[in-house]
Amino acid sequence: MPRELVTIQCGQCGNQIGCRFWELALREHAAYNSKGVFDEALSSFFRNVDARYVPPRNLPVGDGTGIIQTLKARSVIVDMECGVINEMLKGPLGDVLDTQQLISDVSGAGNNWAHGNHVYGPQYRDQMMEKIRCTVEACESLQSFLLLHSLGGGTGSGVGTYILELLADQYPDVFRFTASVFPSEDDDVVTSPYNALLSLSKLVEFADCVLPIENQALAEIVGRVDSGARGSTANTVPAAFGMVQEPGSRSKPFDSMNGIAAMMLLNMTSSVRFEGSLNVDLNDITMNLVPFPQMHFLISSMSPLTTPKDMAKISAPRTLDQIFTEVFNREHQLIRADPRHSTYLACGLLMRGNATISDINRNVARIKPSLRMAHWNTEGFKLGICSKPPVGVSNALLCLANNCAIAQTFTTMRDRFAKLYKRRFYTHHYEQYMDLSMFDHASETVSGIIDQYNAVDTAVPPPVTRFRSRGLTFL
């Protein structure tokens, strides 16, 4: 049975990541679907429609041998500025994105979480829910929602978290994943500390699983890639898949950073789309890696870690031992943190390519002594194997770690917020749309999750009581 994922991309950053995500998803499916048929793997992200009808008619997967007519992404696209959306529609993805699933305005949220959450959210509530309902009804077995957004601006943070709260209310039984871009410490949006903390508090309350991504970490990763090498020729996607990437096309700013985030999402969903000897659904991730409801933030790392267009620059195939060692290296993380010196609540290792369970178990046994696992979950590894590697490499590994090191990231965000809020800088912009008590509530919520992670990090195993056998005595 098909297992669909509905993607909601919100704001400029969320839509730019979504654009790269759809581009790379088409490229990946084209590599493994040379016959151009609409199979279960493709149906996870796309609908196959017959555009001769008005409205277009959805074509079922059936036995997986039907020819692709017109692919439409299972997505809802939201932005309160129409610039990015118009650019996407004019580009090679224009035919893949369903224009009936777009919601936009013209003025934007002005980098103000309150404007997005308390004005645009309620204003477009009915439209957003109708778009989401139509997308959900086109699914046979909806597995989860995936929200792409950032925390530093106004639309992605304010409208994005408003949508997240709506999903929790209207679809409580469907898991809610978010790929949330955290702002850099030197972010040029002066109100980003307010937006980020308000958004983070909503992620704590209404998300089931959050994949934090830091702009600064992505920039450092891209900086380590040899940008001076000659440009590689992009792969051409068959016309049946709705998009053709012209050779020699020029990359746009942030494409490499967005591509790394998109690759992480493709690796995470690979087992949903392709077969393997040890498949892992998204539901399995939340079940095994989130031991406490609010402690659902997963630090992601990948190997090989490079921008998709630079896959050909990898000088030699990596061994499995190298790959496993690299995903526990800070330079391969999509967020700047130090998990090796903090406690792991659980750890997911999702392998793609030609590997066996014995290979994975051997590497876990090799690396495990250097990790500090929670004393109540010393065997807390969730393993997955998907037989299809990313395009251009023979093996790849994604690590999703629920680690207490994330508390330091939250502490930094809270401290940046406190520096502004204690002097009430810029708060008058927010008071137009909300009560200032929401700042205090958000700060308390974030402080609470920090305390929860710190409590696990400093916990010690209870003493073991040993009883001495006295043997038997007879009178």
From TrEMBL:
Domain Tubulin/FtsZ 2-layer sandwich: from-to ranges: 278-415
Taxonomy, superkingdom: Eukaryota
CDD domains, A to Z: epsilon_tubulin
A Pfam family reported for this protein in Swiss-Prot or TrEMBL: Tubulin
InterPro entries recorded: Epsilon_tubulin (IPR004057), Tub_FtsZ_C (IPR008280), Tubulin (IPR000217), Tubulin/FtsZ_2-layer-sand-dom (IPR018316), Tubulin/FtsZ_GTPase_sf (IPR036525), Tubulin_C (IPR023123), Tubulin_CS (IPR017975), Tubulin_FtsZ_GTPase (IPR003008)
Stated family: Belongs to the tubulin family.
Protein name: Tubulin/FtsZ GTPase domain-containing protein
Organism: Chlamydomonas eustigma
